[in-house]
Amino acid sequence: IAGITQAPTSQILAAGRRMTLRCTQDMRHNAMYWYRQDLGLGLRLIHYSNTAGTTGKGEVPDGYSVSRANTDDFPLTLASAVPSQTSVYFCASSVSPSSNYHNEQFFGPGTRLTVL
Amino acid sequence: GQQVMQIPQYQHVQEGEDFTTYCNSSTTLSNIQWYKQRPGGHPVFLIQLVKSGEVKKQKRLTFQFGEAKKNSSLHITATQTTDVGTYFCAGNKLTFGGGTRVLVKP
């Protein structure tokens, strides 16, 4: 794979439906992240995972859940999609965070999600 | 919580001219990162600054971390069309600024 991949590339979803966005990296990075990007608002952190088996909430976690069963995969689930979740979603990974900060992040190509 | 602001939101630059974009945090930062996102693309890491007053250069790009570690700047000299994109700064709590969108006029 050589890097970080996301699937699907884009999706149109009916409100109320469940959706899982997939993210896989082959760089053996311990830390992974999910962001949403809305026009004019930059990137906002949804959830993160510093290492396999652990997850944490970011700035905008409501309506989303994540799991980190192994190092490579970090799926993001919308249990019941709402129109306000229409956005571009980016997954990212980095080597283990230091005690004070997170290191350089490598971003995937993104998933464009539209909830109608 | 930590808030990161960037100015300007938009920057129209004549090709060949210089410009600077600024990043300001509501809290003291342990580090700051800069990313570039081309239109339709994903953010790509440019640099990380850790030390107070640190200055780093990458060809025509100069990055600076403020003495108080609450602000940072990115200065681009002799702007080229390849510089088009949105430049984001990010604080140590993974808080991104809103970005500066750079448009270059040939």
Care to describe what's here?
The complex is a heterodimer of chains A (116) and B (106). Chain A is mainly beta and 116 residues long. Chain A is 0% helix and 47% strand. Chain A has no helices and eleven strands. Chain A has strands spanning 4-7, 10-13, 19-25, 31-38, 42-49, 56-57, 64-66, 76-78, 87-94, 106-107, 111-115. In chain A, strand 5 and strand 6 form a beta hairpin. Chain A is globular and about 40 Å long. With 106 residues, chain B is mainly beta. Helix content of chain B is 0%, strand content 53%. Chain B has no helices and ten strands. In chain B, the strands form two sheets. Chain B has a five-stranded antiparallel β-sheet with strand order 1-3-8-7-6, with no helix packed on it. Chain B has a five-stranded mixed β-sheet with strand order 2-10-9-4-5, with no helix packed on it. In chain B, strand 9 (85-91) and strand 10 (100-105) form a beta hairpin. The model of chain B has no long low-confidence stretch (mean pLDDT 95). Chains A and B meet through strand 5 and strand 10 of A and strand 5 of B.
- Name the poorly predicted regions of chain B: none
> Strand count, sense and closure of the main sheet of chain B?
5 strands, antiparallel
Mean pLDDT reading of chain A: 93
Helix content percent band of chain A: under 10%
Question: Mind telling me the C-alpha Rg of chain B?
Answer: 13 Å
- Terminal residue distance of chain A: 32 Å
Average pLDDT confidence of chain B is 95
Overall structural class of chain B, as computed from helix and strand content, comes to mainly beta
Oligomer: heterodimer
Question: Which strand order does the major sheet of chain B show?
Answer: 1-3-8-7-6
Count of alpha/pi helices of chain B: 0
Total number of β-strand segments of chain B?
Answer: 10
DSSP strand count of chain A: 11
Low-confidence stretches of chain A: none
Beta fraction of chain A: over 45%
User: Major sheet of chain A, described briefly?
Assistant: 7 strands, mixed
Alpha plus pi helix count of chain A: 0
Helix content of chain B: under 10%
Structural class of chain A: mainly beta
What is the largest interface, and how many residues per chain?
A: A-B, 24 and 23 residues
